Amino acid sequence: MTPSAGVLLTDLYQLTMVQAYVEQGMVEQAVFEFFVRRLPPRRNFLMAAGLEQVLEFLEHLRLTADEIDWLASTGRFSQTCLDYLRRLHFTGDVQAMPEGTVFFPHEPILRVIAPLPLAQLVETRVMNLLNFQCLIASKAARSVLAAEGKPLIDFGLRRAHGAEAGLFAARASYLAGFAGSATVLAGRQYGIPLYGTMAHSFVQAHKDEVTAFEHFALAQPDNVVLLIDTYDTEAAAHKVVKLAQTLKTKGIIVKGVRLDSGDLAQHAWNVRKILDEGGMREAKILASGNLDEYRLRDLAASGAPIDSFAVGTAMTTSSDAPSLDCAYKLQEYAGRPCRKRSEGKATWPGRKQVYRHGDGPEGRLAYDIVTTLEDRQEGRPLLQEVMKQGRRVGSPESLSEIRARAQRELASLPAPLQSLDEAPPFDVRISPTLQDLAKTVDERG
């Protein structure tokens, strides 16, 4: 088991609470729900992602003998607690929104039902997995909308906040609609299409650009996309045109060029003209270099002849909104609905369902209703059972299925929510039944 998959990748207080619960016999069923309190600035929606990794974590929830021994050596934990942890495995139920579903504040996207110590213990890792992938999938979805149908590639691994973050960013961006990733392990692990060109250092290592281009073409005859901005972009484009004729006699076709700096729109216009006049009308132009959804929108609006984009740091780190105001809160214990009433952080109690109504203009989403699980409503229920008594319900979804859902979900958003500009909030209604339950819980004290 890798360290990132283990139970000890958690906050200390999760373990100390487990000890207190176990020693006091507080082991009845608890219900926790994960939700987002508010959207980041200028975000109009979020996209669910990371469920697959949560289920994998829960399925393999174990502590090794070495880990138990280490916990014992700290002197923090009683023998009762250590014995409980030694027998630990996930026996609970999970309901969740499928990955690729768009969601909004106050809507639970995942519910865990398990004995209290167990449901509490998994909080940190569940939040860690969902927060990051929902964040990246949501930003990637905005980029997809901004690019107006042009393919996007994830180039962000080298500046990701760690190896796992880079890998999960490749997955989250792909399920949200990216065409692929440069991250090789994402290709092996998730079957994500791989894309890549060449580095400036490759060009610099050669005495001249033409030799560098030729050597790369000979090494990668089926993937000749040449980086042309190391020195002089337009001059390099002319060199590519000349070299392409020589390569063609060897059966090698230059598929495209990559622009990575400067005024990308103007360079694209200039390079497109050079390529076309040189008989390379089929060669594509790939643009990269500090791109985010706003630059994608501007480049798309400019009409620049760019065929695809590579998006890196800004997306993989979600630089404009690096975290979500998310929570994993106790909603019920031993059959008793619970509610947090902290100022600015109040929660809605009990087990909930979200019903989606799609009767808006042109079949777009109209509103959602959040209500108690027992209060059945019209509309499409969003939370589905995905784990029962510690076992998955059904087979894992393929990424292609999730991508198709994400595409449908984005298409169903009202036009203002698809915009990068801040729009009036989507209509999320709290049912009278849920409001009444909250009032009852408050009166109970």
From TrEMBL:
Residue ranges of domain Nicotinate/nicotinamide phosphoribosyltransferase in the record: 152-329
Domain Nicotinate phosphoribosyltransferase N-terminal: 8-131
Record bears the keyword Nucleotidyltransferase: no
EC nos: 6.3.4.21
Post-translational modification: Transiently phosphorylated on a His residue during the reaction cycle. Phosphorylation strongly increases the affinity for substrates and increases the rate of nicotinate D-ribonucleotide production. Dephosphorylation regenerates the low-affinity form of the enzyme, leading to product release.
Catalysed transformations (reactions): 5-phospho-alpha-D-ribose 1-diphosphate + nicotinate + ATP + H2O = nicotinate beta-D-ribonucleotide + ADP + phosphate + diphosphate
Organism: Nitrospira tepida
Signal peptide as annotated in the record: none
Protein family according to the UniProt entry: Belongs to the NAPRTase family.
GO terms assigned for molecular function: nicotinamide phosphoribosyltransferase activity; nicotinate phosphoribosyltransferase activity
Residue ranges of domain Nicotinate phosphoribosyltransferase C-terminal in the record: 378-437
Protein name: Nicotinate phosphoribosyltransferase
One GO BP: NAD+ biosynthetic process via the salvage pathway
One GO cellular component term noted in the UniProt record for this chain: cytosol
NCBIfam families (alphabetical): NAPRTase_put, PRK09243.1-3, PRK12484.1
Record's keyword terms, sorted: Glycosyltransferase, Ligase, Phosphoprotein, Pyridine nucleotide biosynthesis, Transferase
